[in-house]
Amino acid sequence: MNIQYIRNCYGCGLCAIACPKRIINIELNNEGFYEPNITDITDCLDCGLCCEVCAYTHKELSLQCRTPKSYAAWSNDSIIRSECSSGGIGFELGRTLIGKGYHVCGVRYNTELARAEHYIATTIDELRPSIGSKYIQSYTINGFSSINRKQKYLVTGTPCQIDSFRRYIRKFHMEDNFLLMDFFCHGVPSMLMWRKYITDVEKKIGKLTYVSWRNKRTGWHDSWAMAIESEFNKKMPIGGNNDVLKYKREHFFYSRLSQGDNFYRLFLSDACLGKACYTDCKYKDLQSSADIRIGDLWGKTYSQNEEGVSAVLTFTSKGDELLKWCNCTLVEHPLEIVTEGQMKTCPQRGYIYNKAMAVLMDENATINDVASAIKLPLKLNNLMNILKHPSKLYSYIVNRMKKI
């Protein structure tokens, strides 16, 4: 019993970590998503560990929670709050737990390999690269394989990664040493799309040295923006001495969703997510195997707030207790307020997906070609959704009349 026939799964990598023979590699498939491959099936022990820790092969979640506690939350440190995607609670949890002897397995962006990846942080300085959302699938192997089972850790990841991870630590009887945190997940787009996107950007500004997927330069509610720095960026001194100079970085590429940014157009239209995101995601709304879930608290309650507010759900008493240790403000709200604006069901895969993936897999196609390919189908799809809902149709007509 092994994972040799599993394809288009979550790509969480726990099968590779659990394998006692270390014969499972996690690699990108031809559609740009991580999946497992057994290097030599004759070395397999048929121990079944790879399947036991795999959330994809189980219908039920590894953690059952009837009613989580729900909060609005934000860091009391204004600098942290401004740098993070929403209220800064993820960073505050990491900073607090490092102070209590924990290590943090978080996600950073590796500019050399052009990928998001899990890594281990043992100091607050090492934790800083984990700040901010990374809207691409992360490579987990280096981070997860560096975990010392005798240490205590905060581990963050997508809901499917965390579900598998809990199965892993439970199997090896070390659950008490871990606090697990996931987030409200939209889905992960193909790495083919991300690579075409950065190829287009690097033609304009050179090799990338920094990427921020959610930048609050225009405010939290308009933070669907890419802020990217390159090797050609100017560095302007703003103070310091001869030994240590502080520099102000100038962002040479700053693209907002409202300006037609191709990454967000494809990501938010669900045009090229992983197949499991459409058909096998068990983690929308309140479904989680984490101790804590975080995200943006969209909706009416904080619609005038531009500093950022985190939506927080705690699924275990341990998660709730640790949350209250942090340097943050917590406001308890009903679930309907905290989860307003979050996806309640899986996205639909259809003609737009087929069209986008066909162009993405063309090595000669650019990100602009992909965006152009889905432009008309996306408009037709949006129009069909409007016609199905009278309230949306009314709003559409009113908005069109205003523009006349």
Automatic annotation (TrEMBL):
Residues 1-29, 34-64 form the 4Fe-4S ferredoxin-type domain. This is Coenzyme F420 hydrogenase/dehydrogenase, beta subunit C-terminal domain. PROSITE patterns: 4FE4S_FER_1 (PS00198), 4FE4S_FER_2 (PS51379). Keywords: Iron, Iron-sulfur, Metal-binding. It comes from Bacteroides vicugnae. The lineage of its organism: Bacteria, Pseudomonadati, Bacteroidota, Bacteroidia, Bacteroidales. The keyword DNA-binding does not apply. The keyword Transcription regulation does not apply. It holds the Pfam family FrhB_FdhB_C.
